């Protein structure tokens, strides 16, 4: 009799365990809010290969760019007055970002011929879609700029393309050459929006800081939801002990800035700050020249008001009953010195820039109900208004 009930208990426990495995906690809806409403109704895109200044030295290899198929090939004449150069994030899905922005433009009702959508495609070694015989590529990124090369080959940080070829090109130089080609091919062009989300927001911010490009065009930089930014001095926001990020608290906080204490020796190393060696392009600009220019750039920080997730900390602190997906948040000590989540990092940095330059030289735009979603950001009313996509 005893053995019979023991057997029954085992069956019940096993069934309960199977039910638990089959019904995991749902993902937190807010972490990547914006993806569910994404409009990709226009879905035809072409990949152009564009000659660069080093193509002759690397066997004719060219740089890949996506564009909507309704648009002429890159470099062909058009009546466009605006170009949106939108950079993908760490997933290196340039076609998806092209879809985000092309559909945003089409939704405005303006003549699509008046807006060029240009979508750089960084490939890393081994990526699907890379043809090493015809395309320029980058080495695998460490994503933090500190190890192993302090950004020398990290495209997020302006690093150079692969060392396997006879010459290499900074990811910042690629953007320079794209804009120069747009200026040459489109006499009616007046304005270029350089926009990026997540790791694309990182490259947009650092390109705005270090660019040496001289052009008749008005260049505007839109930095959306980056995991880190480059501070202009050794100060960082004075933060409370780590906590579950709350967007209302962040939005209402006025940050003080000072050099942080603690054990993070590399918190100001290049990428997170300006200390130590710089990659080739940034070194040629110099930190002093970059700081002087940055305050005169037109820069807009675009913050998803729900981009508050940190998977590692949420699991430890039980911030939510759902499963947190933070989209690859940088959880290094260097990044944590800038804030506990992406929203806090961007809001704090916008305040830092105002204090550093002594005025509102840049703008901060908050996008409600959007988390870590490139589509949610670039198809928002807030982005359309700030980037003047409405004409």
From TrEMBL:
Keywords: Signal. PANTHER family: BLL0132 PROTEIN, PEPTIDASE S9 PROLYL OLIGOPEPTIDASE CATALYTIC DOMAIN-CONTAINING PROTEIN. Residues 1-17 form the signal peptide. InterPro entries: AB_hydrolase_fold (IPR029058). It comes from Aureococcus anophagefferens. This is Fungal lipase-like domain-containing protein.
């Amino acid at each position: 009799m005893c053995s019979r009930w023991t057997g029954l208990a085992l069956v019940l426990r096993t069934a309960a365990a199977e039910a638990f495995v089959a019904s995991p906690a749902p993902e937190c809806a807010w972490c990547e809010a914006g993806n569910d409403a994404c409009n990709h109704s226009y879905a035809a895109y072409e990949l152009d290969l564009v000659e660069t200044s080093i193509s002759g030295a690397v066997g004719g290899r060219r740089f890949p760019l996506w564009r909507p198929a309704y648009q002429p090939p890159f470099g062909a004449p058009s009546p466009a007055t605006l170009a949106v150069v939108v950079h993908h994030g760490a997933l290196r899905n340039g076609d998806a970002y092209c879809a985000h922005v092309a559909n945003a433009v089409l939704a405005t009702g303006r003549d699509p011929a008046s807006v060029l959508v240009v979508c750089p495609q960084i490939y890393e070694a081994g990526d699907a879609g890379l043809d090493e015989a015809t395309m320029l590529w980058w080495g695998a990124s460490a994503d933090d700029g500190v190890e192993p090369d302090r950004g020398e080959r990290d495209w997020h940080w302006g690093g150079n393309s692969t060392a396997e070829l006879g010459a290499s090109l900074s990811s910042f130089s690629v953007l320079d050459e794209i804009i120069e080609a747009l200026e040459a091919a489109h006499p009616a062009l007046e304005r270029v929006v350089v926009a990026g989300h997540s790791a694309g927001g990182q490259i947009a911010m650092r390109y705005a800081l270090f660019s040496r490009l001289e052009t008749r065009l008005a260049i505007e930089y839109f930095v959306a939801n980056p995991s880190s930014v480059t501070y202009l001095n050794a100060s960082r926001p004075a933060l409370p002990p780590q906590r579950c990020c709350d967007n209302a608290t962040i939005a209402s906080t006025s940050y003080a800035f000072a050099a942080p204490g603690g054990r993070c020796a590399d918190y100001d190393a290049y990428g997170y700050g300006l200390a130590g060696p710089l990659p080739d392009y940034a070194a040629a600009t110099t930190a002093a020249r970059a700081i002087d220019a940055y305050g005169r750039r037109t820069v807009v920080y675009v913050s998803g008001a729900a981009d508050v997730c940190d998977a590692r900390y949420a699991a430890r602190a039980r911030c939510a009953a759902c499963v947190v997906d933070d989209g690859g948040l940088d959880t290094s000590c260097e990044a944590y010195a800038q804030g506990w989540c992406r929203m806090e990092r961007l809001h704090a940095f916008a305040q830092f820039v105002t204090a550093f330059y002594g005025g509102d030289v840049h703008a901060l735009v908050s996008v409600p109900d959007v988390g870590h979603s490139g589509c949610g950001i670039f198809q928002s009313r807030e982005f359309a208004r700030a980037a003047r996509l409405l004409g």
